[in-house]
Write a structure and sequence with these properties.
This protein is mainly β. The protein has one domain. It is 7% helix and 28% strand. The protein is built from 2 helices and 7 strands; from the N terminus they run E-E-H-E-E-E-E-H-E. A 3-stranded mixed beta sheet has the order 2-1-7. Strand 5 and strand 6 form a beta hairpin. The protein is globular and about 45 Å long.
Length: 134
């Protein structure tokens, strides 16, 4: 999934909502502020970030406030992997150049996955609801 950041506003967030597609049971959500985590000088382009992030039960109070590459200790949580890549488009809208991490994973862009504000992302995932070994 690609979220365009070129025209993003710093106050926007990327929100991941985890719910059951069959009955729409809500498991939790996490909002990641663009300015704090993606639109700054410390982010490394084409670097793959992977970490566990806590899912919150209230979408109105679900802002991620941890540090990148430091797993959240709380439960439930979701494993998130992302990278910031540069993508260039041709005249017909086709991808003509991608950063190394994106081309290695996807090879091409599914335009149906390119989101516009408010940048809410609905996705299902296996979530970790218990500590390991319990």
């Amino acid at each position: 999934m690609m979220v365009p950041l070129r025209a993003a506003k710093p106050e926007e967030v990327v929100r991941v909502i985890v719910q059951n597609l069959d009955d729409e049971e809500f498991f939790g959500s996490i909002s990641v502020p663009l300015k704090k985590y993606f639109l700054n000088e410390t982010i490394i382009k084409n670097h793959e970030y992977t970490q566990w992030m806590t899912l919150f039960d209230d979408p109105e109070d679900d802002e991620f406030d941890g540090d990148l590459e430091e797993d959240d200790p709380d439960f439930p949580k979701i494993l998130i992997t992302f990278s910031i890549t540069e993508v260039s488009y041709g005249a017909g809208g086709e991808v003509i150049q991608e950063g190394a991490a994106a081309s290695r994973k996807t090879g091409e862009v599914d335009q149906s996955s390119v989101l516009s504000p408010p940048r809410d992302i609905d996705m299902t995932s296996q979530i970790d609801t218990e500590a390991e070994g319990v």
